[in-house]
Amino acid sequence: MEPILTRCGYRCDLCLAFKPNVAENPGNRETLSDGWHRYYGFRIPPSEICCDGCMADDPVLIDQRCPVRPCVVERGLENCSQCHSYPCDRLEERTVTLDEIRRRVGDDIPEADYQSFIRPYENRRRLDALRCSQRTQGTERL
Questions:
Q1: Of all helices (H) and strands (E), which one includes residue 63?
Q2: Residues 128, 142: contact at Cβ < 8 Å?
Q3: pLDDT (tens digit, 9 = 90+) per residue, 72-99?
Q4: Domain ranges in the chain?
Q5: How far apart are CA 9 and CA 95, in angstroms?
Q6: How far apart are CA 81 and CA 31, in angstroms?
Q7: Residue 100's Cα: distance from chain center in Å?
Q8: CB 31 within 8 A of CB 116
Q9: pTM of this prediction?
């Protein structure tokens, strides 16, 4: 599957909740419910875990209250890296970094857990890299 970057820099294609990934492996739902609880402190019932991704038109989303998607769409941007206000408070609510998670959970994170529960959402590094490449390409939207 090709990389699919969300409005806030998450990667749908890597997310176990992304609808095609759930269809391929329905057990992802239970795994993800447990992993999100361990690393982020919230639990969503497995039956409610399936997401179209925020790049879809009129998507079914896990987080209906996400503050980032409406802002990016309203501004006519693809993602937060293109915004003149980057990073803002809305994005900070959704920012995920491996270092922060390590500090919060207080132990080593197994590689399999990193790949399943952190890498898909580790958005700061992705957005920073995009922003840097847009600057070097002279993107006017910044």
A1: none
A2: no
A3: 999 999 999 999 999 999 999 999 999 9
A4: 12-136
A5: 9
A6: 30
A7: 15
A8: yes
A9: 0.89
